[in-house]
Amino acid sequence: MVLYFTGTGNSRYLARRIAEGLEMPLYDLNACIKARDTAPVQTGRDVVLVTPTYAWRIPRVVSEWLGKTALTGAERIWFVMDCGSEIGNAAGYNRQLAAQKQLQYMGTAQIIMPENYIAMFNAPPKEQAKSIVGQAEPELQKVLTQLKAGQEFPPPRDNLYDRFMSGPVNPVFYRFFVKAEAFRATSACIGCGKCVELCPLNNIRLENGKPLWGKNCTHCMACICYCPKEAIEYGKKSRGKPRYHFEALERKQQDV
């Protein structure tokens, strides 16, 4: 089974491609996490977990869900992580997670996809994003070949910088940067509730037709990047920046 969590669609796209290539079922962790559903999942022997990279590891909401959820029938697990630049030493923590689940760790693969973390970085314009997705195709095909053969992924880079970013920096990043206080809706907001619908942690509610954010945020960027009116800002850090979500890129590709 292919499990995935996504913020703005990159991981969903990769997971869908992998599931199609392996002829495996696809399982949406966003829906499970949003519903607080930790009932056992009948996965079969092989599990492929596809996630974005948050602070040089898999998202904390995903590792917490996995810690509470039995993967019935699972014996082996592969991790596929998309990122804007690098995953640090995420593989070391994925290996630990596999051991906790009593699963055979089959490695971690990194695939570069368009950046979406506009709370800190710039998302690429659509044409550049399209190019990045195209450049990711050979790595995706390599991952598929290894998965079909039941092979372990080769070990990713692991140096002092990687260990530092995934180690000490990760909890510091969550503590001081992963907050929702800076999100706000501008006058362009039409009260459609798309942000409420997409928030995997149920951290957004509508009040008088406008979204309000609570304190339980994972910085997935779904609310700000999927807003149909681009009416959500993250303080001053998102002003003037392109929004990114994969489905808009797909529409762009179809229009060409």
TrEMBL record:
Domain annotation 4Fe-4S ferredoxin-type: ranges: 180-209, 215-237
Keyword Iron: yes
Cofactors: [4Fe-4S] cluster
Pfam family, one: Fer4_9
Keywords: 4Fe-4S, Iron, Iron-sulfur, Metal-binding
A GO term, aspect molecular function: 4 iron, 4 sulfur cluster binding
InterPro entries linked to this entry: 4Fe4S_Fe-S-bd (IPR017896), 4Fe4S_Fe_S_CS (IPR017900), EFR1-like (IPR047964), Flavoprotein-like_sf (IPR029039), PSI_iron-sulfur_center (IPR050157)
Stated role: Ferredoxins are iron-sulfur proteins that transfer electrons in a wide variety of metabolic reactions.
Protein's name according to its UniProt entry: Ferredoxin
Classification of source organism: Bacteria, Bacillati, Bacillota, Clostridia, Eubacteriales
